[in-house]
Design a protein that fits this description.
Elements lengths: L2 H84 L9 H5 L12 H9 L7 H40 E5 L3 E4 L2 H5 L2 H41 L3
Antiparallel strand pairs: 1-2
Helix pairs in contact: 1-3, 1-6, 4-6
Length: about 230
């Protein structure tokens, strides 16, 4: 092989190696771009799911806060009714609101659809571990507790309050008003006093306490969601 041939061969090898390097670099860049694009698409989807979830939680929060205000008002009415039973006064139609506060369910239904949609695609779609855990706890524990409390409230109303009210009251409007058929008999009935006391106890334990707790948790989850959504703006 002549010197010229050896030079040409060396140049060709360097050229070939350079071509291979360029091809490999191109492949790696293409893979990196594809991976970046996949992660971008996944992130866009994640943020869309989180936005939907945030809207659902915010609506539920407004519902619970409104109901909590109503329950606090009912609590004050029940306390006033206890005072009336302890210190009877002549009947006045305004008292019907106090009697009405006893009978009726205190049930609200929360929107779990955004969480179910998220769960169907996999909670691992949420890349923030702390946020994922907070969301899972809110829906699997706190929302579930609300449903259990709904069942308890319904059972107490149907099994305990309804029979007594259907026998002893007329013009019943759930949670609003009930007119006693025999005011003096009801005022002097120790069983009715037990009903009122029990209603207040259950309301405080199953509603006021649980609503206050879940409201705080929902505010915390919304703060986490807002921080995550702002991170990409």
């Amino acid at each position: 092989m002549t010197r010229l041939s050896r030079v040409v061969t060396a140049v060709n090898w360097r050229y070939a190696i350079g071509e291979v390097v360029l091809i490999i670099a191109g492949i790696l860049i293409a893979l990196a771009v594809a991976d970046w694009n996949d992660r971008r698409v996944e992130r866009v989807y994640e943020l869309a799911m989180l936005e939907e979830l945030r809207n659902g939680v915010a609506q539920d929060l407004a519902t619970i806060e409104t109901e909590l205000d109503d329950i606090h008002a009912a609590e004050h009415q029940l306390i006033s009714l206890q005072q009336l039973l302890d210190n009877p006064r002549p009947y006045d139609p305004s008292m019907d609101e106090l009697f009405g506060a006893v009978y009726g369910t205190r049930i609200i239904f929360l929107n779990t659809a955004p969480y179910e949609n998220l769960k169907s695609t996999g909670l691992q779609a949420i890349t923030n571990n702390g946020l994922r855990s907070a969301i899972a706890h809110l829906f699997t524990v706190s929302y579930a507790t609300m449903l259990i409390n709904n069942d308890v409230d319904m059972k107490i109303t149907l099994d305990t309050f309804r029979p007594y009210y259907l026998r002893n009251f007329r013009e019943i409007q759930f949670n609003l008003s009930a007119t006693p058929i025999d005011f003096e008999a009801i005022i002097g009935d120790p069983f009715y006093r037990n009903i009122v006391d029990y209603r207040l106890t259950v309301m405080r334990a199953n509603r006021i306490r649980s609503y206050t707790k879940i409201v705080d948790e929902m505010h915390a989850v919304l703060d986490l969601l807002d921080a995550e959504l702002r991170a990409d703006t």
